[in-house]
Design a protein that fits this description.
By secondary structure, this protein is of the alpha+beta class. The protein is built from one helix and three strands. The chain has one domain.
Length: about 120
């Protein structure tokens, strides 16, 4: 069988489609990477904002418990903090400058603190 026998295949060269296929693969890869980024990025941003808010609230509780004379609290994420990588809690405005109050860990939670004993009573 010969290509000349079939008129619909006249002028057809089998290697013409290859450059289009390469471009199409490249475009498809870009679309897939952008799609995956659009799926993952909002979850990461939401997780970080919730963790920052939780760390700040936990830090406020720690500073009120440990250093009531401080005017504020600051929660920061540090890779090389005193308790290892994670959220660190610092006092703001206390006498002597900023002081590390607590290491809140990678996933900050509200602290469970014992009540402060009254002066003059055994705890």
């Amino acid at each position: 069988m010969n290509y000349d026998d079939e008129p619909e295949l006249a002028g057809y060269v089998p290697t013409e489609g290859t450059p289009r296929l390469r471009r199409m693969r490249f475009v498809l890869r870009i679309v897939v990477v952008v799609g995956i980024a659009c799926l993952v990025l909002p979850g990461m941003l939401t997780t970080m904002s919730v963790a920052a808010a939780t760390a700040q609230e936990a830090c406020n509780a720690w500073v009120a418990y440990e250093a009531p004379e401080a005017t504020g609290a600051s929660a920061r994420f540090e890779f090389f903090g005193t308790g290892g990588p994670g959220w660190q809690c610092y006092t703001v405005g206390a006498f002597g400058g900023e002081k590390n109050v607590a290491s809140l860990g990678l996933i900050p939670i509200s602290p469970k603190m014992s009540p402060v004993p009254l002066p003059g009573k055994n705890a």
